[in-house]
């Protein structure tokens, strides 16, 4: 598949600060603290991991999340309480490099079952996703494993936005659950198969819905959609970083106006957890529309859907409209 990867912006992902004190609650509102129940206690780092744990674990698991609804997960800091509760869990499910503070806490914890989603599928370098790990120490620590041959870009962590790769991760999570809690292995397997079917249906819907469109290019202020774009033959154009106060320069606006005309771009996408200021500035100056394309890093009352599948279906409708699906 020939997917163009022109780069409009460099920085797309901000890194979490070093492990420190915070005020977040480690527990989701309807769950007991990790380690305090007679169920299989799983700590999930952020929403896409939480969703997998709940779907696969079903009634046998107690899932808590480190990232509260509405919080941008890249910026997560952990409290001493969260770190302690993580150590009491039966398993922790996370995506290494997305949240450095979580990576550090997990490395220091005594959790027996550590499930790194990044090892359950193949991460890729999409060229327009760079990580600032907040200092040379982190950069040196992750340089070898994260960077491509050219050494310029980190591997893109936003793998859950590709239903096929997300299904690969789900398979690996199920196998880890079965091994760690063999008494309920059959149910974990059954739940994983049901989830796999849902994700396969979602993939089919995307393939069919985006097969014929007026344009294949979309603008977004967060370069989270590289895997989705590659899977369905689209081109993601990242405008800016995650800094809500930053705005494109006049030269950038002019460049984007030319891009929009050349490629038939109609819409600038923004997301629910980040300011829409940049997207609206660009759209106004370039005569484009704005809409939400949700990177699914958290579910809030602003989300266009109640869960992963619901939001992904809303994203598909938004893309179909913006790209002029036939």
Figure out the total of helices.
Answer: 10
Please give the largest β-sheet.
4 strands, parallel
List the uncertain runs.
1-31, 129-152, 241-245
In percent, how helical is the residue content? 25-40%
- What is the CA-atom radius of gyration, in angstroms? 20 Å
Kindly state the mean pLDDT as a whole number? Answer: 82
The computed structural class is alpha/beta
Question: What is the straight-line distance between the termini?
Answer: 21 Å
Q: Care to count the β-strands?
A: 10
Question: What are the secondary-structure elements, in order, as H or E?
Answer: EEHEHEHEEHHHEHEHEHEH
The order of strands across the largest sheet is 3-2-4-5
Which term fits the overall shape? globular
Report the portion of residues in β strands. Answer: 5-15%
Description:
- The chain starts with 10 loop residues before the first strand and ends with a helix.
- Helix content is 40%, strand content 13%.
- The chain is an alpha/beta fold.
- Strand 4, helix 3 (100-108) and strand 5 (113-116) form a beta-alpha-beta unit.
- It has a four-stranded parallel β-sheet, sandwiched between helices. A four-stranded parallel β-sheet has the order 8-7-9-10, sandwiched between helices.
- The protein has helices spanning 47-57, 80-88, 100-108, 136-146, 163-180, 185-209, 226-231, 250-263, 277-286, 308-323, and strands at residues 11-14, 40-44, 61-65, 91-94, 113-116, 130-132, 217-220, 235-238, 267-270, 289-292.
